[in-house]
Design goal:
This protein is mainly α. The chain is 62% helix and 0% strand.
Length: 237
């Protein structure tokens, strides 16, 4: 029994909160009627538990007869179901100001993903396929150096989070565009790092591809709506 994935989730939530706080100090968070932190925290918690239950069902474990296994994480979290549950929860809580809420959470969400992946350091699960590079890492009981693939993902997500925050600060993108770009980045980073993972072929690649496709479709749609909407405030009246 171990709680290491919950530790990674805690790091991710801390990064999410830190980014929201940082953006608020820079005047970069939209003034929605609902607290972005409340929405984000609720969505994250629902997502983790939904993903955990999805993983249990996928492994043939009944969550009703084994409720303790929902908290005592042994087999991970189903990424796709966790993401869907988190997005659905955020959409429901922010339904009256959907795009402002999603845009306000864009950079923070990527920072949260960066923290989740960086949490691999707490559970000794950062390494992927073999590599002969100066920054390759080895496990204590192995002589084979490997790509720190989880740290690659964490670093990329962190850079993307800073980039989107800076972009939103300097420009006024059409409503929904930052959120759509975040969805594209989330899927693309996982697709790009998947070949370096030891679980190649068993990861939820379809979910990552779907995120890229859906995000790109939303991006195109929102950009096409810019005509007649440029310069309008992004929060609801």
């Amino acid at each position: 029994m171990e709680f290491s994935l919950l530790g990674s989730a805690a790091i991710g939530v801390a990064c999410l909160y830190g980014t929201l706080w940082w953006e608020a100090r820079r005047g970069n968070v939209l003034e929605c009627s609902r607290s972005l932190w409340d929405i984000a925290l609720t969505a994250a918690v629902v997502g983790v538990f939904a993903g955990r239950i999805g993983a249990m069902i996928g492994d043939g474990v009944n969550p009703i007869t084994n409720p303790a296994d929902v908290l005592i994480v042994r087999a991970g979290v189903a990424t796709g179901w966790a993401s869907l549950a988190a997005l659905a929860t955020a959409a429901w809580l922010g339904r009256r100001e959907l795009w402002p809420v999603f845009d306000g959470l864009a950079a923070a969400s990527l920072a949260g993903l960066a923290g989740w992946h960086a949490g691999c350091l707490t559970r000794n699960a950062c390494l992927g396929s073999p590599a002969d590079l100066p920054w390759a890492m080895t496990q204590p009981d192995s002589s084979v150096s490997r790509h720190p693939v989880e740290l690659y993902a964490a670093l990329t997500f962190a850079i993307a989070a800073v980039g989107i925050a800076a972009w939103r600060k300097r420009r006024l993108p059409p409503p929904g565009v930052p959120a759509a770009m975040t969805l594209v980045v989330a899927g693309a980073v996982r697709l790009a790092t998947e070949p370096l993972r030891p679980s190649l072929g068993t990861g939820p690649v379809g979910w990552y591809a779907a995120a890229v496709v859906v995000g790109a479709a939303i991006l195109g749609w929102r950009v096409s709506q810019r005509s007649g909407g440029a310069g309008r405030p992004l929060h609801s009246p």
